[in-house]
Specification:
Blueprint lengths: L2 H11 L4 E8 L4 E7 L4 H10 L7 E9 L46 E9 L4 E8 L7 E3 L8 H12 L2 E3 L28 E6 L4 E6 L33
Parallel strand pairs: 2-5, 6-7
Antiparallel strand pairs: 1-2, 3-4, 4-5, 8-9
Length: 245
């Protein structure tokens, strides 16, 4: 089944439950992405797994997404000064955030958090991406799919650990990557890349202790994207005649 037929089959099966049904196709691959509401997610997932024409029997990944400041960039320019700091003057990304700083939210109108599921049908050899938005930003919750696909157990724990997304019905929702007692969720966009605390071994106490982070945020200026054609591969290089001979 090609992606267009899969998209049509999904639209026919879920006549009123799909918030979005998009086919993205390029020269390399094609993919179908659907969006469903949190309250419809379990019913949709069960049909995706059990329907004979769909039969998505394998869950390959569950990941979290934070859409805070989505689409906002601080490096948008086509020129730079001699010092390289003509852009990135106002921080809008987490690289330079300190504890207590606020990150400007985007005006896209979409909820901040989402859980994204990647499904595969071994029987029909097709793949699907499903996006489920969390209704509440303060307490982002989506239903757990562990009962449908046991492989979701560690995936959902990872999304909880890194993004703070709660998976209702998960049998053992606890951190899986960060240290014991870790505060916050490091993949949220308002979490500073340098973190809040750092560890060191204290010679006097003879143990590892936590202290406020001492690393200073750095501004790394990426290369400038120019549109004058100097790097176009189809431009003939200028030939300079050697007059020293």
């Amino acid at each position: 089944m090609n992606v267009q037929k899969l998209s049509q089959a999904l639209a026919t099966t879920f006549t009123s439950q799909l918030q979005s049904n998009v086919v993205v196709q390029n020269n390399v691959s094609a993919e179908v992405t659907i969006e469903v509401l949190s309250e419809d997610a379990l019913a949709v997932f069960k049909t995706l797994r059990d329907d004979g024409d769909l039969k998505f029997d394998q869950l390959t990944d569950v990941c979290g997404v934070d859409y805070l400041s989505y689409g906002s960039v601080e490096w948008e320019t086509e020129a730079s000064s001699s010092t390289g700091f003509s852009r990135g003057v106002e921080p809008v990304a987490g690289a330079r955030l300190r504890f207590g700083d606020e990150l400007k939210a985007s005006d896209s109108g979409r909820p901040r958090f989402a859980a994204v599921y990647h499904l595969m049908s071994l029987a029909h050899n097709h793949r699907l991406r499903v996006r489920v938005y969390c209704d509440d930003e303060a307490m982002p919750v989506v239903p757990s799919v562990v009962e449908l696909w046991p492989s979701a157990n560690w995936f959902e724990r990872e999304a909880f650990d890194l993004y703070g997304i709660l998976f209702e019905g998960h049998p053992d929702l606890r951190r899986i990557l960060t240290d014991y007692g870790f505060v916050g969720h490091p993949f949220r966009k308002d979490f500073p890349l340098i973190g809040h605390v750092e560890m060191k071994y204290d010679e006097q106490q003879k143990r590892v202790v936590y202290q406020p982070v001492s690393i200073e945020p750095r501004v790394l200026v990426p290369r400038v994207i120019r549109d004058d054609g100097r790097f176009d591969s189809d431009v003939e290089p200028e030939v300079v005649e050697n007059t020293d001979a």
